Amino acid sequence: MPTVSNRGKMMPNSPIRKLVPLADKAKAKGIKVYHLNIGQPDLQTPPEALAAIRNIDRNILEYSPSEGIISLRNKLVHYYSKFQINVTADDIIITTGGSEAVNFAFMSCLDPGDEIIVPEPAYANYEAFAIAAGAVIKTIVAKIEDGFALPPVNEFEKLITPRTKGIMICNPNNPTGYLYNREEMNKIRDLVKKYNLFLFSDEVYREFCYTGAPYISAFHLEGIEQNTILIDSVSKRYNECGLRIGALITKNAEVKQSVIKFCQARLSPPLVGQIAAEASLDASPEYMLNNYNEYVNRRKFLIDGLNRIEGVYSPIPMGAFYTVAKLPVDNADKFCTWLLSDFEYEKQTLMLSPASGFYTDPDNGIDQVRIAYVLKKEDLAACLNILQEALKVYPGSKVKRVVKNN
Amino acid sequence: MPTVSNRGKMMPNSPIRKLVPLADKAKAKGIKVYHLNIGQPDLQTPPEALAAIRNIDRNILEYSPSEGIISLRNKLVHYYSKFQINVTADDIIITTGGSEAVNFAFMSCLDPGDEIIVPEPAYANYEAFAIAAGAVIKTIVAKIEDGFALPPVNEFEKLITPRTKGIMICNPNNPTGYLYNREEMNKIRDLVKKYNLFLFSDEVYREFCYTGAPYISAFHLEGIEQNTILIDSVSKRYNECGLRIGALITKNAEVKQSVIKFCQARLSPPLVGQIAAEASLDASPEYMLNNYNEYVNRRKFLIDGLNRIEGVYSPIPMGAFYTVAKLPVDNADKFCTWLLSDFEYEKQTLMLSPASGFYTDPDNGIDQVRIAYVLKKEDLAACLNILQEALKVYPGSKVKRVVKNN
After folding, report:
1. Which residue of B has its CA nearest to A20?
2. Fewest 10 Å CB contacts: which of A28, A107, A201, B390?
C-alpha cells in the first residue's frame, strides 16, 4: 500500500472541527450542545441574497469566468471605495471563500522553505495553507496580558532570514478580536518596506469594529501597494458562510498573473454563490446595523459575563466576534474534550475551541479557549452558566470547588 | 517588490481559457464565436436541481460539514452501486468540483519531487495540480494513429523510478474520448500492484460511453482497492459545471484522513451546490437519456463532418464529449489564434483548444486541436463549415487553396 505524503501527515487537524465527533456523541445522548467553537453566526443571510437564489433565472448553471463574474467584481470596487480602499475590478479576483484566497496567495508567493511571520494566536488554517505550500510559519506570541497587541518590532526582526517572504496579519483579528491601531499598522508597513516582504492581510471582519477606533486596511498604508495582498470573504459580513465566496485583492501584476493561473486550474468559483454574494452587497443599512448592534450587545454581555466567573479572564475584543479567554483549568484541550464527553448541566453542554490550535507551540495558550459569540444573548447566558458550573466540577479545575450544603 | 514563487511562475496557463481575451475582442467586433474550446455543455441543468435551488428553505446559508452533507454522500453510495462501484458514505468526500478532488488527491499523496505517470494528451489541469503539489508529471504519448489507446506497458515501466508514486488516468478520456477496455485496465492494475502505486482515476464522464463497450471503473479492478482514488464531479453529468461539486472516493484510511484535513482547512464545499447536486441525482431517466442521445447524434455528426474535410482526421471517440483531431495546418496554436484575431466567415468564427496544451512537450500535437461537442447539431454544422472555409484561407494551411473562378 503506498503511503500518503509527508505534507498530508503534517497537515493539522482543525482545532475548530476536531471535537465534532464528540459533540455528535453528546447530541446522540440527548444533550444540547451550544456551539461557541465555530464562527458560524446564527444571524440570517440577507433577504436580497436569498431572493437572488430563489429567483435564479438560468436554466444552465455554467462555469463563471475563472476570476469571477465581472458584475460582482465591479460592485466590490464600489464597496471597497466606501472604506477608502481604492482598487479596480482588475485588482479583484473572486475565490472560493477567503480560504482559497489565502491558499492562492501562499501558493503564488511562497516556495517550499520560504518563511512567513505571523503573530499568534492566529487563525489555524494559515498554518494549514502554509504547510500545503511547503512554506514555514514563524510565529511571535501576542500576549493575553497585553490584550493581544502587536508584539514589538524587534521580535519580528529577530525572525527575519533571507527566506522570509512575508508577514500575515488578520485585522480585526480572529481569534483574539484585536484591532491594530495606526501606530501598529505603520510599524508593519515599515517592516514590509525595509525587508521587501509581502503583506498578507486578512480583513474579513472589517465591518465588525466596536470601539470607535478606525479600521486601518493594509491598502491604507502608503508605499507598500505592490507588496499587499488583501484577503476577503462575504461569509461573516452577510452570514453566508456556506456560499464559499471570497476575494484576493492585489495591485501587483505578477502576483495577479500567477493567482489567475491557479484560478484557471480550478476552472471557476461557485456560480450561485457569486450571484447571491452580488445581491448581498445590496443588503439594507438596517440589516447591516442590526447585525452590528447584535454583536455589540453580545460582546458586552459575553465579556462581562466571562470576567465575572471566578478565575476566568478575557481581554475586551475590539472587533470580529471572537475572544480568547483564559480559564482556570489545567489544560484547555482536556477541558473542552471533557465538556463534551463527561459533562452536562441540565442536559446541556458547551463546545469551545481550545486555543492551543491557534498557537504553533501547543504549550502556549494551554489554559486558553477561543469563544465565538455567534449565538443570541439568551444562549450566551445559558453558556456562561454552563461554563461556571463546569468549572466547579471539572477535575482539572483550579477554582475551589463549592461545597454543597445538603 | 518581492517576487512570486517559482511554482507560481511554473503554473501553466489554461490551454482552454488562454485565448479568451482574443475571443472577447472578436465578439466586440460583432463576430459570433462558436465555443468548441471548453467542456461547457449547452444542455439544461436538471429541473430537479433548479427547483431545489429555487425552493431553498433556509434563512441561514451556513457551512456544511467539511467532508460534505451526509444526505448527498448517502445518495451517491446508491448512485455508484448502479455502476458496481461498492463504496460507503465514509469513502466519499465531497469536494469543490472534481478539480479540488484532484488537488487534494495530489496534495495528500505526492511530496515535492514525487512523480506520477500520465498518458497524454491529458487534461491540462492535472499538470497544474501536480506543479501546485511540487510533483513531477512524466508522460507517455498515446498516438492519434492508434486512436489514443493505452501506450504499451513497457513505456510505463521505462519511466518508473523510486520516486514514482502513482498513475493518473481519465476514463472515458478528456481530451481524446478514448475508453479503456478490460485488457488495458488489467494492465494498469498490474502496474499499480507490481510497483505499489496510487491509481488516480478521473471518471467524471462515465455516463457518456457510446460504443456498447463497458465502462470499467478503477474500483472494478481487484487487488488494488487500497491504491485507488477515484475523482468524480456532477458538472458534466448534469450540465451544472457552475455548482462546483465533485467527490474524492477512496477506501484507503490514511488517504482519507489526510484529505479530510485539507477539507477542514477550506472549511466546507459550497452549500447550495450540494443541495442542487443532491437533487440532480433524482434527474429522470428521460432527462439522462435525452442528453445521452443528444451526444450520440452530435458525435456522429461532428466526427463524420470532420473526416470529410480535406486533410482533417479525427479518430472516433468512444466516450466523453471531446475529440482530438489532426488539422492540415502548420501549427494549431497559431491557427486557433488566427481564427479569433484574423478570420471571420459570414461574421462567424470558431474557438478551439490547441492540443499542445494537453501535451507536456508542446511539439507534440502541434497540428492537433481538442474539440468539445457541447453545441447543438445546427451549431456544429455551422462550425464544420467555418472550419472548412478557414482552412482554405489560413496562411499556414497545408490544403491546396481553392482557386476562385471569377
Report:
1. B65
2. A28
